[in-house]
Amino acid sequence: MHSDRLLLGPGPSNPYPEAMEALSRPVLGHLDPEFLTLVADTAQRLRTVFGTRNRLTLPVSGTGSAGMEACLASLLEPDDLAIVGVNGYFGERLCEVARRLGAQVRAVHAPWGRPLDPEQLLDAQRQAPQARLVAVVHAETSTGVRNQIAPLRELQNTDTLLLVDTVTSLGGIPVEVDAWGVDACYSATQKCLGAPSGIAPVTLSERAVQRIRDRERPVCSFYLDLSLLDAYYQGDPARYHHTASSTLISSVHAGLGRLLAEGLPAVWERHARVGERLQAALPELGFELFAEQGHRLPQLTAARLPDGVVDAAGRKALREDFGIEVGGGLGPLAGTGWRIGLMGHNAQTRPLTTLLAAITS
Ligand SMILES: *Cc1c(COP(=O)(O)O)cnc(C)c1O
Predict the structure, then answer these.
(1) Which residue's alpha carbon is nearest to atom 3 within ligand 1?
(2) Global pTM exceeds 0.85
(3) Which of 69, 90, 170, 185 to mutate to test the pocket of ligand 1 (most atoms within 8 A of CB)?
(4) What is the pLDDT of residue 240?
(5) How far is Cα 163 from Cα 155, in angstroms, rounded to an integer?
Protein backbone atom coordinates (compact mmCIF):
# COMPACT_ATOMS: atom_id res chain seq x y z
CA MET A 1 0.00 0.00 0.00
CA HIS A 2 1.44 3.38 -0.93
CA SER A 3 1.00 6.66 0.90
CA ASP A 4 -2.17 8.73 1.02
CA ARG A 5 -1.07 12.16 -0.18
CA LEU A 6 -2.81 15.50 -0.09
CA LEU A 7 -2.26 16.46 -3.75
CA LEU A 8 -1.88 20.25 -3.90
CA GLY A 9 0.31 20.54 -6.99
CA PRO A 10 -0.70 21.34 -10.58
CA GLY A 11 -2.46 17.95 -10.85
CA PRO A 12 -3.41 15.29 -10.15
CA SER A 13 -5.71 16.46 -7.38
CA ASN A 14 -7.42 14.10 -4.94
CA PRO A 15 -10.57 12.79 -6.67
CA TYR A 16 -14.05 13.11 -5.21
CA PRO A 17 -14.93 10.07 -3.03
CA GLU A 18 -17.67 9.19 -5.54
CA ALA A 19 -15.07 8.99 -8.32
CA MET A 20 -12.86 6.68 -6.22
CA GLU A 21 -15.77 4.45 -5.22
CA ALA A 22 -16.75 3.98 -8.88
CA LEU A 23 -13.31 2.52 -9.63
CA SER A 24 -14.31 -0.73 -7.94
CA ARG A 25 -17.35 -1.42 -10.13
CA PRO A 26 -17.33 -4.49 -12.41
CA VAL A 27 -15.56 -4.08 -15.74
CA LEU A 28 -17.74 -3.79 -18.86
CA GLY A 29 -16.71 -4.72 -22.41
CA HIS A 30 -15.92 -1.80 -24.68
CA LEU A 31 -18.95 -2.52 -26.94
CA ASP A 32 -21.42 -3.55 -24.23
CA PRO A 33 -24.64 -1.53 -24.64
CA GLU A 34 -24.43 -0.61 -20.95
CA PHE A 35 -20.93 0.74 -21.52
CA LEU A 36 -22.05 2.77 -24.56
CA THR A 37 -24.91 4.18 -22.48
CA LEU A 38 -22.39 5.12 -19.77
CA VAL A 39 -20.27 6.90 -22.40
CA ALA A 40 -23.32 8.73 -23.78
CA ASP A 41 -24.34 9.81 -20.30
CA THR A 42 -20.79 10.95 -19.54
CA ALA A 43 -20.77 12.94 -22.79
CA GLN A 44 -24.03 14.59 -21.75
CA ARG A 45 -22.52 15.60 -18.40
CA LEU A 46 -19.45 16.91 -20.25
CA ARG A 47 -21.66 19.06 -22.50
CA THR A 48 -23.09 20.74 -19.40
CA VAL A 49 -19.63 21.37 -17.94
CA PHE A 50 -18.23 22.63 -21.28
CA GLY A 51 -21.29 24.87 -21.83
CA THR A 52 -22.00 23.35 -25.23
CA ARG A 53 -24.60 21.53 -27.29
CA ASN A 54 -21.92 20.07 -29.58
CA ARG A 55 -22.91 16.60 -30.76
CA LEU A 56 -19.27 15.51 -30.96
CA THR A 57 -18.36 15.52 -27.27
CA LEU A 58 -16.30 12.55 -26.10
CA PRO A 59 -14.19 11.15 -23.29
CA VAL A 60 -10.94 10.43 -25.19
CA SER A 61 -8.78 7.66 -23.71
CA GLY A 62 -5.55 9.22 -22.45
CA THR A 63 -4.57 12.22 -20.36
CA GLY A 64 -4.94 15.90 -21.26
CA SER A 65 -2.00 15.59 -23.66
CA ALA A 66 -4.02 13.06 -25.67
CA GLY A 67 -6.80 15.64 -25.93
CA MET A 68 -4.29 18.22 -27.20
CA GLU A 69 -2.84 15.82 -29.77
CA ALA A 70 -6.28 14.51 -30.85
CA CYS A 71 -7.52 18.05 -31.59
CA LEU A 72 -4.37 19.24 -33.36
CA ALA A 73 -3.86 16.00 -35.33
CA SER A 74 -7.51 15.87 -36.41
CA LEU A 75 -7.74 19.56 -37.41
CA LEU A 76 -4.33 20.24 -38.98
CA GLU A 77 -2.76 18.90 -42.16
CA PRO A 78 0.90 19.28 -43.13
CA ASP A 79 1.82 22.87 -44.13
CA ASP A 80 -1.37 24.32 -42.60
CA LEU A 81 -0.74 27.52 -40.65
CA ALA A 82 -1.57 27.55 -36.93
CA ILE A 83 -1.48 30.72 -34.82
CA VAL A 84 -0.66 29.90 -31.20
CA GLY A 85 -0.78 32.11 -28.12
CA VAL A 86 2.30 31.49 -25.97
CA ASN A 87 2.70 32.82 -22.42
CA GLY A 88 3.87 29.69 -20.66
CA TYR A 89 4.88 26.05 -20.91
CA PHE A 90 1.61 24.70 -22.31
CA GLY A 91 1.44 27.31 -25.09
CA GLU A 92 4.93 26.19 -26.07
CA ARG A 93 3.73 22.58 -25.99
CA LEU A 94 0.92 23.45 -28.44
CA CYS A 95 3.53 24.89 -30.85
CA GLU A 96 5.71 21.79 -30.50
CA VAL A 97 2.87 19.36 -31.19
CA ALA A 98 1.62 21.40 -34.18
CA ARG A 99 5.16 21.51 -35.64
CA ARG A 100 5.56 17.76 -35.23
CA LEU A 101 2.38 17.36 -37.28
CA GLY A 102 4.07 19.29 -40.09
CA ALA A 103 2.12 22.52 -39.57
CA GLN A 104 3.61 26.01 -39.87
CA VAL A 105 3.38 27.78 -36.53
CA ARG A 106 3.13 31.51 -35.88
CA ALA A 107 3.46 32.20 -32.15
CA VAL A 108 1.95 35.30 -30.52
CA HIS A 109 3.84 35.85 -27.28
CA ALA A 110 3.24 37.48 -23.94
CA PRO A 111 5.76 37.30 -21.10
CA TRP A 112 5.35 34.40 -18.64
CA GLY A 113 3.13 35.65 -15.82
CA ARG A 114 1.12 38.03 -18.02
CA PRO A 115 -2.02 37.31 -20.05
CA LEU A 116 -2.12 37.11 -23.84
CA ASP A 117 -3.54 40.12 -25.67
CA PRO A 118 -6.59 38.85 -27.62
CA GLU A 119 -6.27 41.82 -30.01
CA GLN A 120 -2.78 40.63 -31.00
CA LEU A 121 -4.13 37.15 -31.73
CA LEU A 122 -6.95 38.60 -33.83
CA ASP A 123 -4.43 40.84 -35.65
CA ALA A 124 -2.23 37.85 -36.43
CA GLN A 125 -5.27 36.15 -37.95
CA ARG A 126 -6.15 39.28 -39.99
CA GLN A 127 -2.63 39.29 -41.37
CA ALA A 128 -2.86 35.58 -42.18
CA PRO A 129 -6.53 34.83 -42.89
CA GLN A 130 -5.50 31.49 -44.40
CA ALA A 131 -4.58 30.30 -40.87
CA ARG A 132 -6.47 27.08 -40.15
CA LEU A 133 -6.74 27.66 -36.44
CA VAL A 134 -5.87 29.88 -33.48
CA ALA A 135 -4.92 27.91 -30.37
CA VAL A 136 -4.88 29.30 -26.83
CA VAL A 137 -4.45 27.88 -23.33
CA HIS A 138 -7.26 29.17 -21.11
CA ALA A 139 -5.57 28.47 -17.76
CA GLU A 140 -1.74 28.46 -18.02
CA THR A 141 -0.77 25.94 -15.37
CA SER A 142 2.90 26.92 -15.58
CA THR A 143 2.27 30.48 -14.36
CA GLY A 144 -1.22 30.65 -12.84
CA VAL A 145 -2.42 33.11 -15.51
CA ARG A 146 -5.96 33.20 -16.91
CA ASN A 147 -6.14 34.07 -20.61
CA GLN A 148 -9.27 35.71 -22.00
CA ILE A 149 -11.17 33.62 -24.53
CA ALA A 150 -14.46 35.49 -25.10
CA PRO A 151 -12.92 38.27 -27.32
CA LEU A 152 -11.71 35.57 -29.72
CA ARG A 153 -15.35 34.83 -30.59
CA GLU A 154 -14.76 37.12 -33.58
CA LEU A 155 -12.96 34.24 -35.28
CA GLN A 156 -16.44 32.83 -35.94
CA ASN A 157 -16.67 35.39 -38.76
CA THR A 158 -13.58 33.92 -40.45
CA ASP A 159 -12.53 30.51 -41.77
CA THR A 160 -10.09 30.12 -38.87
CA LEU A 161 -11.09 27.74 -36.07
CA LEU A 162 -10.62 28.53 -32.38
CA LEU A 163 -8.97 25.76 -30.32
CA VAL A 164 -8.84 26.15 -26.54
CA ASP A 165 -6.99 24.13 -23.87
CA THR A 166 -9.22 23.98 -20.79
CA VAL A 167 -7.21 21.32 -18.95
CA THR A 168 -6.83 23.38 -15.77
CA SER A 169 -9.89 25.61 -16.19
CA LEU A 170 -12.77 23.16 -16.74
CA GLY A 171 -14.69 22.77 -13.49
CA GLY A 172 -12.59 25.45 -11.75
CA ILE A 173 -13.62 28.68 -13.49
CA PRO A 174 -16.36 29.35 -16.06
CA VAL A 175 -15.87 27.79 -19.49
CA GLU A 176 -18.48 28.64 -22.14
CA VAL A 177 -17.64 26.77 -25.33
CA ASP A 178 -20.74 27.82 -27.31
CA ALA A 179 -21.00 31.40 -26.03
CA TRP A 180 -17.29 32.02 -26.70
CA GLY A 181 -17.39 30.51 -30.21
CA VAL A 182 -14.86 27.79 -29.39
CA ASP A 183 -14.58 25.20 -32.17
CA ALA A 184 -12.39 22.64 -30.46
CA CYS A 185 -11.79 22.22 -26.78
CA TYR A 186 -10.01 19.57 -24.70
CA SER A 187 -9.52 19.05 -21.00
CA ALA A 188 -8.34 16.44 -18.50
CA THR A 189 -10.06 14.73 -15.60
CA GLN A 190 -7.42 14.97 -12.85
CA LYS A 191 -7.36 18.72 -12.31
CA CYS A 192 -10.59 20.60 -11.44
CA LEU A 193 -12.99 17.82 -12.51
CA GLY A 194 -12.11 15.73 -9.47
CA ALA A 195 -11.45 12.31 -11.07
CA PRO A 196 -8.27 10.29 -11.67
CA SER A 197 -6.09 11.00 -14.72
CA GLY A 198 -6.54 8.96 -17.87
CA ILE A 199 -9.44 10.60 -19.73
CA ALA A 200 -9.38 13.72 -21.92
CA PRO A 201 -12.82 15.27 -22.47
CA VAL A 202 -13.02 16.73 -25.99
CA THR A 203 -15.73 18.69 -27.78
CA LEU A 204 -15.88 19.91 -31.42
CA SER A 205 -18.26 22.38 -33.10
CA GLU A 206 -20.04 21.45 -36.33
CA ARG A 207 -17.57 23.49 -38.36
CA ALA A 208 -14.67 21.64 -36.76
CA VAL A 209 -16.36 18.31 -37.58
CA GLN A 210 -16.77 19.54 -41.16
CA ARG A 211 -13.06 20.47 -41.24
CA ILE A 212 -12.19 16.84 -40.48
CA ARG A 213 -14.59 15.60 -43.20
CA ASP A 214 -12.96 17.94 -45.72
CA ARG A 215 -9.40 16.76 -45.05
CA GLU A 216 -7.31 15.79 -48.06
CA ARG A 217 -5.28 13.25 -46.09
CA PRO A 218 -6.38 10.94 -43.29
CA VAL A 219 -5.50 12.00 -39.74
CA CYS A 220 -1.89 10.92 -39.15
CA SER A 221 -2.80 9.22 -35.84
CA PHE A 222 -5.21 6.28 -35.95
CA TYR A 223 -5.63 6.21 -32.16
CA LEU A 224 -6.39 9.93 -31.82
CA ASP A 225 -8.50 10.40 -34.99
CA LEU A 226 -11.60 12.11 -33.58
CA SER A 227 -13.78 11.00 -36.53
CA LEU A 228 -12.94 7.34 -35.78
CA LEU A 229 -13.62 7.90 -32.07
CA ASP A 230 -16.95 9.47 -33.02
CA ALA A 231 -17.82 6.41 -35.13
CA TYR A 232 -16.86 4.14 -32.22
CA TYR A 233 -18.91 5.83 -29.53
CA GLN A 234 -21.79 7.31 -31.51
CA GLY A 235 -21.87 5.10 -34.60
CA ASP A 236 -24.87 2.88 -35.28
CA PRO A 237 -23.79 0.21 -34.71
CA ALA A 238 -20.82 1.20 -32.55
CA ARG A 239 -17.59 0.07 -34.21
CA TYR A 240 -14.53 -1.30 -32.45
CA HIS A 241 -11.69 1.19 -32.44
CA HIS A 242 -9.83 0.52 -29.17
CA THR A 243 -10.62 -1.05 -25.80
CA ALA A 244 -11.80 1.97 -23.85
CA SER A 245 -11.68 1.64 -20.06
CA SER A 246 -15.12 1.31 -18.45
CA THR A 247 -13.35 1.66 -15.10
CA LEU A 248 -11.99 5.14 -15.82
CA ILE A 249 -15.13 6.33 -17.58
CA SER A 250 -17.29 5.15 -14.64
CA SER A 251 -15.08 7.14 -12.35
CA VAL A 252 -15.27 10.29 -14.47
CA HIS A 253 -19.04 9.84 -14.79
CA ALA A 254 -19.34 9.68 -10.99
CA GLY A 255 -17.02 12.65 -10.43
CA LEU A 256 -19.03 14.75 -12.91
CA GLY A 257 -22.23 13.61 -11.18
CA ARG A 258 -20.93 14.95 -7.88
CA LEU A 259 -19.82 18.22 -9.49
CA LEU A 260 -23.16 18.78 -11.26
CA ALA A 261 -25.17 17.90 -8.16
CA GLU A 262 -23.34 20.72 -6.35
CA GLY A 263 -23.90 22.93 -9.40
CA LEU A 264 -21.35 24.73 -11.57
CA PRO A 265 -21.83 28.20 -9.99
CA ALA A 266 -21.29 26.76 -6.50
CA VAL A 267 -18.20 24.84 -7.65
CA TRP A 268 -16.69 27.96 -9.29
CA GLU A 269 -17.45 29.97 -6.16
CA ARG A 270 -15.72 27.34 -3.97
CA HIS A 271 -12.58 27.52 -6.15
CA ALA A 272 -12.66 31.33 -6.13
CA ARG A 273 -13.00 31.53 -2.36
CA VAL A 274 -10.13 29.19 -1.38
CA GLY A 275 -7.89 30.57 -4.14
CA GLU A 276 -8.35 34.12 -2.88
CA ARG A 277 -7.58 33.03 0.67
CA LEU A 278 -4.40 31.26 -0.43
CA GLN A 279 -3.30 34.28 -2.48
CA ALA A 280 -3.95 36.58 0.48
CA ALA A 281 -1.98 34.32 2.85
CA LEU A 282 1.12 33.56 0.77
CA PRO A 283 2.60 37.11 0.60
CA GLU A 284 2.32 37.32 4.41
CA LEU A 285 4.53 34.21 4.55
CA GLY A 286 7.15 35.81 2.29
CA PHE A 287 6.02 34.30 -1.03
CA GLU A 288 5.70 36.55 -4.07
CA LEU A 289 2.76 35.80 -6.38
CA PHE A 290 3.95 35.33 -9.95
CA ALA A 291 0.88 36.00 -12.11
CA GLU A 292 -0.12 39.61 -12.74
CA GLN A 293 -2.86 40.87 -10.45
CA GLY A 294 -6.29 40.76 -12.04
CA HIS A 295 -5.33 37.76 -14.21
CA ARG A 296 -4.76 35.14 -11.53
CA LEU A 297 -6.38 31.73 -11.52
CA PRO A 298 -7.93 30.81 -8.17
CA GLN A 299 -7.29 27.09 -8.70
CA LEU A 300 -3.56 27.30 -9.46
CA THR A 301 -1.15 29.70 -7.80
CA ALA A 302 2.48 30.12 -8.84
CA ALA A 303 4.68 31.94 -6.34
CA ARG A 304 8.36 32.71 -5.77
CA LEU A 305 9.76 31.17 -2.60
CA PRO A 306 10.66 33.32 0.42
CA ASP A 307 14.37 33.92 1.03
CA GLY A 308 15.88 30.96 2.82
CA VAL A 309 13.44 28.32 1.55
CA VAL A 310 15.20 25.80 -0.69
CA ASP A 311 12.88 24.45 -3.38
CA ALA A 312 13.68 20.72 -3.36
CA ALA A 313 14.24 20.50 0.40
CA GLY A 314 11.04 22.40 1.14
CA ARG A 315 8.92 20.16 -1.08
CA LYS A 316 10.59 17.05 0.37
CA ALA A 317 9.73 18.20 3.90
CA LEU A 318 6.10 18.87 2.92
CA ARG A 319 5.89 15.42 1.37
CA GLU A 320 7.68 13.42 4.04
CA ASP A 321 6.57 15.27 7.18
CA PHE A 322 3.01 16.15 6.15
CA GLY A 323 2.12 13.95 3.17
CA ILE A 324 1.48 17.05 1.06
CA GLU A 325 2.52 17.41 -2.59
CA VAL A 326 3.02 20.82 -4.20
CA GLY A 327 4.51 21.41 -7.65
CA GLY A 328 7.91 22.83 -8.54
CA GLY A 329 8.26 25.86 -10.79
CA LEU A 330 8.61 25.86 -14.57
CA GLY A 331 10.45 28.36 -16.79
CA PRO A 332 11.46 31.48 -14.82
CA LEU A 333 10.21 29.81 -11.61
CA ALA A 334 12.25 26.61 -12.01
CA GLY A 335 14.08 26.02 -8.74
CA THR A 336 12.78 29.29 -7.25
CA GLY A 337 9.02 28.90 -7.06
CA TRP A 338 6.15 26.55 -6.35
CA ARG A 339 2.85 25.86 -8.04
CA ILE A 340 0.00 25.21 -5.62
CA GLY A 341 -3.30 23.76 -6.79
CA LEU A 342 -6.61 23.88 -4.92
CA MET A 343 -8.57 21.98 -7.51
CA GLY A 344 -11.74 19.89 -7.61
CA HIS A 345 -12.30 18.06 -4.32
CA ASN A 346 -9.33 19.95 -2.83
CA ALA A 347 -10.89 23.38 -3.41
CA GLN A 348 -12.03 23.43 0.19
CA THR A 349 -11.01 25.06 3.45
CA ARG A 350 -9.41 21.99 5.02
CA PRO A 351 -6.73 21.36 2.35
CA LEU A 352 -5.97 25.11 2.38
CA THR A 353 -5.57 25.39 6.15
CA THR A 354 -3.64 22.10 6.28
CA LEU A 355 -1.14 23.44 3.75
CA LEU A 356 -0.75 26.82 5.46
CA ALA A 357 -0.22 25.11 8.83
CA ALA A 358 2.43 22.82 7.32
CA ILE A 359 4.26 25.74 5.63
CA THR A 360 4.36 27.77 8.84
CA SER A 361 5.43 24.92 11.13
C1 LIG B 1 -1.75 19.32 -17.27
C2 LIG B 1 -1.92 20.12 -18.52
C3 LIG B 1 -1.85 19.53 -19.80
C4 LIG B 1 -1.44 18.12 -20.01
O5 LIG B 1 -2.28 17.23 -19.41
P6 LIG B 1 -1.76 15.78 -18.96
O7 LIG B 1 -3.00 15.22 -18.32
O8 LIG B 1 -0.62 15.99 -18.03
O9 LIG B 1 -1.37 15.03 -20.17
C10 LIG B 1 -2.13 20.32 -20.90
N11 LIG B 1 -2.45 21.62 -20.76
C12 LIG B 1 -2.51 22.22 -19.56
C13 LIG B 1 -2.87 23.66 -19.48
C14 LIG B 1 -2.24 21.49 -18.41
O15 LIG B 1 -2.30 22.08 -17.22
Answers:
(1) 64
(2) yes
(3) 90
(4) 94
(5) 11
